[in-house]
Amino acid sequence: MHEYTTKELPKLKIIYWLTIISIVISPMVSSWFESILAKIPFLKNLSELAFYSISGFCVFSILWAIINKWLWKIIPFLNVPNLSGNWKIIGEFIDYRDITPKPFKWEGKLTIKQTLSKISIVLKTKTSQSSSFNAILEQYNKKEGILSYTYKNNNLDNDPKWVS
Fold first, then answer.
1. Strands 146-155 and 102-114, sheet pairing
2. Cβ contacts of residue 116 below 8 Å, gap of 6+?
3. In terms of CB atoms within 10 Å, which of 45, 69, 78, 146 comes out highest?
């Protein structure tokens, strides 16, 4: 998976608010953790270290992991569509290498894996497989968007016609 770009940079909004939340709640989490350790006899001596071990960075990392992987799909103000899944693709292109240009139809399966910060796009056809290495999601709302991506293609049948 690789990072992808969105027009409104919702990741920055999330990072901003997670930073504030982490700074506010990390002392509370540390106190709670310290009180739990104080009740366990053989860990009682470690309870004082608990206050220092639960940092804002630790809280931020846990919250970011949860939001990045799952919660981003339901956060209303982000409006980032969830494109994850398998998609049937029917395509057509014109082969201009012959004297008379000929249309060529093809079918494939597009597999998209997505989090808030990363995406992976793989297209498999009978003759090739391509994988994305750069993507941008634009003109989107919660239900739809335009996804553009750059990819590397691997010719599976080694037909010289498709090798440039």
1. unpaired
2. 10, 11, 14, 67, 68, 69, 72, 78, 80
3. 78
Which tokens in the block code for residue 15? 């990072």
1: which strand partners? Answer: none
Task: Indicate the pTM of the whole model.
Answer: 0.79
Torsion of CA 108, 118, 148, 156, to 10 degrees: -30
Contact between 155 and 162 (Cβ < 8 Å): yes
CB 66 within 8 A of CB 14: no
Q: Who contacts 160 (Cβ-Cβ below 8 Å, separation ≥6)?
A: none
Distance set, CA 27 to CA 16, 19, 149 (Å): 19, 14, 43
